[in-house]
Design brief:
Length: about 300
Amino acid sequence: MAVTTRRTGPAAWLPALAIAAFAWSSVAQAEVEIGEEDPQAGEDERIAYGEYVLRAGGCVTCHTAEEGDFLAGGRPIESPFGVFYGPNITPDEEHGIGGWSEGDFKKALREGRSPNGTHYYPAFPYTAYTKMTDEDVEALWAYLQSEVESVARENTPHDLDWFVRFRPSLSVWKWLHFEPGEFEANPDESEEWNRGAYLTQALGHCMECHTPRTRTGGLDLERLGAGARMPDGDVAPNITPDRETGIGRWGARHIARYLEMGITRDGDFAGSSMADVIEHGTSYLTSDDRRAIAAYLQSLDPIEHEPD
């Protein structure tokens, strides 16, 4: 007959304690592996995305002069009211935005105001950028402050008609034409459609050039996307799906290819203004984003309009 002995006292608990300690250390290690994130890796990812936002937002085209330093300003932007010059947005503290806070940057994009509260002219499309998401604004700020080389280039003064030089009058213009607020997705539409709407209306600000203007310089909202002649003589074409004057005969693949390569449905090439936008902006977009823009544009109401 086998005889068993039963251990009592502290020694009896040692095996159980060892097992429990091992199990606890395994669980704790697993929690560290699952929950631990490298802060620098997250910041690097945000900065990389900020460069994508810069490209999608068309910033390079207006803030980099021909043969000029990257984002150091000086690019002329013609308008019916005179010539504006894109400012220096490098992190130079004296001439760029190096002395700004992130809050100053958000105020510029959201409200169209400088750090000291001065109204910006709407040649800077804050009327569209006001719709940008916080994520995009913050990523763009991170990229500009950390990856762009500082250039001590003084900003070129605007050359404007006398009656538009009085900046306080811009408060009246804003009252007429500016509605601040972040983009709101349409719950009745698909995720792709909403992404395309965001890129077109907000970040890419396509309608700012492709919509006729009123006498006071606001967008003619009844002809949104119907095309407009630019002050330099170039034409921003009708991008509504009208079959005669717009892009109604284009398929989604034609629109996506145009945004990537600048080739039209008929095999022609984009005009000079849009060629710059494509080279420095839309060619950097992902295929999904280009298709999203196409999906949104094809959903617009067709408007028959040939830019004057």
